[in-house]
Specification:
Elements: H1 2-6, H2 9-22, H3 27-43, H4 48-74, H5 93-107, H6 112-130, H7 138-164, H8 173-176, H9 180-193, H10 197-228, H11 235-238, H12 241-245, E1 253-256, H13 259-265, E2 273-275, H14 291-303, E3 307-310, H15 324-330
Parallel strand pairs: 1-2, 1-3
Helix pairs in contact: 2-3, 2-4, 3-4, 3-7, 5-6, 6-10, 7-9
Amino acid sequence: IIFLKLKRMDLLIFLGCLSALMLLTRFAGAGFILGFGLLIILNTEGRFSRKLKHLLLYGLPIILLGSIWLMYVMSFSEGSPTNRSFAMHWSSLINLKDALVTVVYWLVPLSFWKSIVFFSLMVVTLIVLSYKNISRHTLNVKFTKIFAYLILAYMGFIIASNVFFDGGIPFDNRLLAPLFPLFLLLLALHLKSLKIKKHRNAFSLIVASLILVQAYGYARSSFKNYKFGYGYSHVKWTSSQVVKQLDSLTEDVIYTNGNDVISALSSIDESKVQVLPITYNPQTTEVNSNFENQMQALVKNVSNGEAVLVYFENIDWRDYYPSDKTIKRYFTVEMIQ
């Protein structure tokens, strides 16, 4: 924003250096870098050569510093910067639903249907208040475009990555969180743009009620986390009989759908822990054609006493592992911990 206002080249190079550091955040950095590049092109006046010059001044520090980081990462990963590969896999409706639910929960952290109803009423009310009531002030329009471009660039990058690079990208709070402050800024600009005072007051009242609902939702969530624990410190894990038996296992190999649970809640050597065969590749969504043979080999190892199977039914978010019904087709109850 400062560069767009002052048009200084040294600021553009400095912005490129800062943006290169954003690559450490992976998706947030790469998504917003595309957005910044788009802003530079659209807001640079003059011929295309001038736009290209500004874009190169911004991009060269990113390429240079990003290359150093890439070489550092490759030194720890046998020459490959990632374990993903390019492949076409269209985003599922579940991903789009997850994205919608995440955004709705930002504003209205209640139960699913309460959040949807409250959010829908709020959107309709804001549209009614805004109808033919928006000031076209140049500064407001310019900042609105800036934030909108950044949001579109970030979402476009995530969707493109999901379709062409990693079909398992979750559209969850962690990944979409960088958009939250931009939504808040857009909301503030919209409030400032309303011409009729009583409409601004009504808009402010809606925002205030929204803040109260958020405070209630997050306070309730914090109380539950304090009382029952959070993540793998939750009582459902710490009181689990399976978890309590982990340190007593003596088999050479432990097959599981929760290697992170075993790592976090036991003292078992991680080299002994192996994940279950996957039914499909979560990155490419490609079906594992060797699944049957892998499962038969696993059953043989467990039957011979060389390995043990530890299956966590609470882990229901990794659907690329075989379900409990599938597991029971291969194993008797006595063979499953």
